[in-house]
Amino acid sequence: MINVGIIGCGSIGVKRHIAEYEENDNVKLTAFCDRVVSRAEAQQKIYGGKAYEKYQDLLEDESVDAVSVTVPNHLHAEISIAALKAGKHVLCEKPMGLSTGEMDRMIAAEKESGRQLMIGHNQRLIKEHQVARDYVTSGKLGKVYAFRTTFGHPGPEEWSVDGKESWFFKENEAGMGAMGDLGVHKADLIRYILDEEIVEVGGLISKEAKSFSDVDDNAVCILRTASNAVGTLQASWSFYGSEDNSTTIYGEKGVLHLLGDEKHSFVFTGRDGTVVQENYGGIQTNDEEGQAKKSFVMDAFIKALVTDERVPVTADDAKKSVEIILSAFESDRTKKIVMEK
């Protein structure tokens, strides 16, 4: 049994982390923390345990084995490092950090602690994307030539506990907007499916859709992989209609369409006429029905701790996905293509 504490009891902490932990037979929810302490107390009334206003107090609780860090982006590094130093395993929401320096300190803290740090990238954990990776790595798709991946919805004001007043829209707390919320997911996904790194990044980023926000709400990136595949990544908080979380991979032997068809979440169309259509269940969305789906993140985190295996989304790996997003901002600022290290 893993005793879990939740640091951050907003919408993500409650509707995703707590909801999935509660269904895991290997988890006991034992502590809840939020700077609005009434939110932590509300969860305590449901699940028992203790409620805290300050994360430092929760980390002093020796009964807590692991924590989820579901707080504003600018606190990810600070709290994750403190939790690791306190001897806790950590599941931190994305983006992992807001700078290379922050992420390097998180990685160093993990290594020094002997505990595990996992970053909450759910896209690589759903079956559609795992099968797609198999098509690429096994050669079923042949050489990959091009790709496009998109994540867009109306924005966090639709579901955040604070609406338009949410930290998501404040640069001093979020650091970045749609790119940190959605773009980093797709950067991680492309790296995962193609099983290679991005070597060049171009970014066009704007702040036009949210008058109450001071962070980016739309971005289009051009990416080149190490094997010379080229493609686009789009992140948006202005898709004022149905959510789009689709990816298409164009290869030598056919095309993969992922999460872009209402009936079939996985479609392979081969050059030889072969058509494979499957529905593996899709991915979480922000509507009520989509929220009920599992992200598989919490289960994967707990499984690694119970079996003493390495977590499936390591800090070293997640850092590379954030660096793509940071490079896109640099490209937009300098009007130049940025070469990845």
UniProtKB/TrEMBL annotation:
Annotated ranges, domain Gfo/Idh/MocA-like oxidoreductase N-terminal: 2-121
Gene3D superfamilies, sorted: Dihydrodipicolinate Reductase, domain 2 (3.30.360.10), NAD(P)-binding Rossmann-like Domain (3.40.50.720)
Domain GFO/IDH/MocA-like oxidoreductase span(s) in chain numbering: 130-256
SUPFAM superfamilies associated with the record: Glyceraldehyde-3-phosphate dehydrogenase-like, C-terminal domain, NAD(P)-binding Rossmann-fold domains
Protein's name in the database: Gfo/Idh/MocA family oxidoreductase
